[in-house]
Amino acid sequence: MYYNDNITTIKGIGDKTAKLFSKLQLTRAGDLLDYYPRTYSTFPEPIDTITDDKVTDGVAIAARIRSQVYNRHTPRMDVTTTKVEVQGIPVELVWFRMPYIRSQLEPGKVLIFYGALKKESKGYKMEQPTVYTPEQYGALLSSLQPVYHLTKGLSNNTVKKSVRAVLDEVLYEDYIPCTYLDKHELTGLKEAYEQVHFPESFDELTVARRRLVYDEFFDFLMRVQLEKSKEAIIENHLSIGNRNYYDKVRWSLPFQLTQGQSECLEAMEEDLLKSYASQRLVQGDVGSGKTIVAFLMMLRFLENGYQAAIMAPTEVLATQHYETFISYCRDYDLPFSVYLLTGSMKAAEKRQVYARIASDEPCFVIGTHALIQQKVEFCNLGIVVTDEQHRFGVKQRLQLSTKGDAPYVVVMSATPIPRTLAMILYGDMKISTIRSAPKNRLPIKNAVLDAKERMKAYKFIGKEIQASHQAYIICPLVEASEKTEAENVTEYAGKVQQLFGDHAVVGCLHGRMTPQEKNDIMTRFANNEIQILVSTTVVEVGVNVPNATVMMIENANRFGLAQLHQLRGRVGRGSDQSYCMFIRDGSDKDAKRLEILNKSNDGFEIAAEDLKLRGPGDFYGIRQSGEMNFQIADIYQDADVLSMVSEDVNEILSIDPELSSDDGKEILRHLRQKEHQIYDNL
Ligand code: ADP
Ligand code: MG
Known about the structure:
Blueprint (H helix, E strand, L loop, with lengths): L14 H9 L15 E4 L16 E6 L5 E4 L4 E9 L2 E8 L13 E11 L2 E10 L1 H8 L2 E4 L8 H14 L8 H6 L5 H9 L4 H29 L13 H9 L6 H13 L7 E6 L5 H13 L4 E5 L3 H17 L5 E5 L5 H12 L4 E5 L13 E6 L7 H8 L6 E6 L5 H7 L4 E5 L10 E6 L3 H13 L3 E5 L10 H16 L5 E4 L5 H12 L5 E4 L12 E6 L7 H8 L10 E6 L6 H9 L3 H11 L25 H17 L6 H13 L1 H4 L3
Parallel strand pairs: 5-7, 9-14, 9-15, 10-12, 10-13, 11-12, 13-14, 16-21, 17-19, 17-20, 18-19, 20-21
Antiparallel strand pairs: 1-8, 2-6, 3-4, 4-5, 6-7
Helix pairs in contact: 3-5, 5-6, 6-20, 7-9, 8-9, 10-16
This protein binds adenosine-5'-diphosphate and magnesium ion.
Adenosine-5'-diphosphate (ADP) binds next to helix 9.
């Protein structure tokens, strides 16, 4: 079996299961190797007594088979039952459609039954428990069991078995030159995969993770460097001498630009005086006002005859930018059109926009990934801006710039990255950081509440709504196996609506909605037709509704700090006092982390503190929110590996820039295999 073979080549995966896997973007056998567990579970010691508080999932009981084992055939299925006792307390065991289990249940034998313990009116019961001999179970006790992200219909066991099959059968080779593996004492790729999925101990997992983090950074940096080397140094032919509209708007804004915003604009101006084309990364915490900076610079290009494009990661955000830009054009009487281009627009609408863009009209073009489709041809694109750039891949960012003839490239990011890391990740891009928040902002007031105090939070929201403000509620997370996220949000929103009755209109937003549905809800929220927006984390990116002054985040302890900070950034965007309430479910373990957010509203500081608190053991629990789309690596936690990889990649390419040596070819082969769609042009 090869990495690129269809997933159906794996034993036990038929078309139906393959379809489920494809929902998780797993289509090739090798994809499963990179589908790392979400977390690990350990098997518990068998319980010694049965009491009501032991009634949960994942319980093990040790018991001797004494009673009869019954097999019943109903027209619908086979049911196997028997009774065991734990310290004199009877437990009924039931299996459906597993008549063969009977042969394992030998009378007199002590066995371990593992599963969900339930209490019913007749007594305790376990359905479908897995059966182990004490020896088998003893071996499992010390191991970590992978727990994968699932989708409805796909069980953890199926994923586990499939991964096992791939590990056993797929042929793959290490591609990192031995010199580097030895130098950094990295484990082999095969072992790393084996141990990240089925670690026998925590230490093993740590070792495996380090190797996979190395690889992830290696792939990324190698790709960036290769793409970069293809671009020759390009002369700058842009000129933006006219500045009437630019000055007019800049000096008549209802607010004064912050120092960071002004400095950023000036730095951009200098970039454009240079003889070579350059690129700029604009970093600024949530709410620091990056949009207006982009708008002003784009306007500058328009009045010099160019077209200007901005790409956003979601339709909601693109639509919002579109509306903001339209209102600027109206308010300042600017003679320019604004066009929106998103995937969900009708073909005829798109064609109209394509035609406008292809004409030489200077205009603002705002869009999602739809902007980089082949059909989109600009006539005279002078500047391309990528908003929330960490949500895009390297390739997508580059594709946007190829839509013009060496346009000015600006990428914007709200995730604060220390300068040293940014230099590695963004290569030769120049960096502007907007550090200060706009003057009129009051710092957000935070509170960490226990789940029991939820009513307090609702009351507080009620008060804010009475004061004509609006609220976000970030809905509890669901385990994939329970309900779908959509069902959960809808149900939760229903409860909130009931609670608030006539006092508020409650809307609900989740990832499964169509882009139009999402836009519709967001527009109604922006117009204050909805006062409480119950949402999954889809609101995380960029949305701006300054009248929303309060946010309540359920299960706050299960999010990464950076993500919580981004979420919280949806409030505190106007001059009114804003509030964020973090609801903590259960354990105190995370209290300390939430305390950081409670005390600070500064993204840079939060990232640094978060890092201090995290040990090497925090693998998956508290991820940064999609930072650069890394899957296992974390640029903060693994900063040392990142700089190590950066040196290695540079060294490899300085010796073998085309990757034409044997080692180099191996690396290329690997890159192609992982991202065949990206490397088909190499
Ligand atoms: P982000 O940097 O997160 O993208 P936005 O660009 O969405 O932030 O800006 C958030 C809000 O702040 C907007 O309503 C914007 O009009 C406002 N804003 C931007 N700059 C300033 C400023 N200098 N003073 C006051 N408000 C500002
Ligand atoms: Mg933004």
